[in-house]
Amino acid sequence: MKKIPTRWIVIGVVIIALLGGVLRALSNKSAKQAAAAAPANTISQIELATSDVLKAELRDITQGLDVSGTVKAVNYAVIKARVAGEVKVITVREGDSVKAGDVLARIDPTEYQRRWQQADEQASAAKSQMEIAQRAWDSNKALVDQGFISKAAMDNSVASYQGAIASHKAAIAGADVARKALDDASLRAPFAGVISGRTAQVGERVAIDAKLMELIDLSQLEVEVPLSPSESMDVRVGQVASLQLEDSKENVGAKVKRVSPSAQTGTRSVLIYLGLDKAEGLRHGLFAKGILGLGKSQVLAVPLSAVRTDRAQPYVQVVEQMGDQQKVAHKTVTLGIRGLDLSKPESETMVGVTGLAEGSTVLKGQVGALREGLVVKYTAIAASDVATPSRSAP
Question: How many Å from the N-terminal Cα to the C-terminal Cα in the chain?
Fold first, then answer.
């Protein structure tokens, strides 16, 4: 028998080993795929909370304009110094509530007190001169009637009296001006509100019109919204809006109170003012955004987030009664108008749909994609306690 070369034996062993490895790898891969597919095939139901579904119903959808602006107080004042001098007293700080007429600060009144006294004394002196001129005029009038003095002397007497009257009036006006300056040394609240800022300290010398503090009335708030000229064309007084303030989850109702008749210089924007329905707890300067309603239509609507677009045609996931069980079904829909239902507390954008029966139980977008035919059972957990349902991948 012919002897087989050793190198062929080695080559054969290597080939056999490679074939064995390939067969083992294919076997392990098939086993893993079978193991991975086995749980999926056994999952047949899912538990949902009542907060994960809603009824598709007819809603008054308000189509509108996206708006954003700043919350401002209707009554807002910057308290400035009306006279120059040293600040002697400041009676309030940030956050203090004041009433109309309350003294907020006092500037050193010494100089203005002396000026008023001087002007008042000058008015008294002018009054005395007027009285002297009047007595002289009365005497000369009797003398001219008796022919003891000439008419020219009488005319001079009249002129002196009229000049004395004018001097007295001028002195009184000067005293009034000095008195006003003295009164202006005490800064008073023009209306009831809350101090929102203070920029001066006791002992500081301030000039005329120097800013001392800010006063805001939080009982009346509005949102100032800039719009482009084209957007402002359809805005009318009385139109309603739904606004979200800063990061608040709750919406606040608002209504168009005023529309500026002119565009702003430079930006060319037109300002509209929205009166807020509820001002409690809000602050001047907050940022607001939302939708201003321009038109309303009644349509069968669902939340826009509930519409899935991972297929060629948009669809929604619904829960239907099939036999004695409730199961997931997919319904292809045609999308219509989008907007907000301002009568409902939710702030989610709604969309009109066709191809869906009124009253259908629709799964919200937070649930995610579910397989058709999956059995649905509802948990006893309160809707407020459910954020995202626990589920296995289909």
Answer: 65
Please report the domains of the chain, with CATH numbers, ordered by start residue. Answer: 42-62+297-385 (2.40.420.20), 66-74+220-294 (2.40.30.170), 76-215 (2.40.50.100)
Q: Cα separation of 118 and 129, whole Å?
A: 17
pLDDT in tens, 195-247: 998 998 999 999 999 999 999 998 888 999 999 888 888 888 988 888 888 87
What number of CA atoms fall less than 13 Å from residue 106's CA on the CB side?
Answer: 11
Torsion of CA 198, 200, 202, 204, to 10 degrees: 180
The string of pLDDT tens digits covering residues 313-333 is 999 999 998 888 888 899 999
For 182-220, list the strands marked E by DSSP.
186-188, 193-198, 205-206, 211-216
In the numeric block, the tokens 């392990």 are attached to: 28
pTM exceeds cut of 0.85: no
CA gap 69, 73 in Å, rounded: 13
Alpha helices in 102-189 (DSSP H): 110-146, 151-184
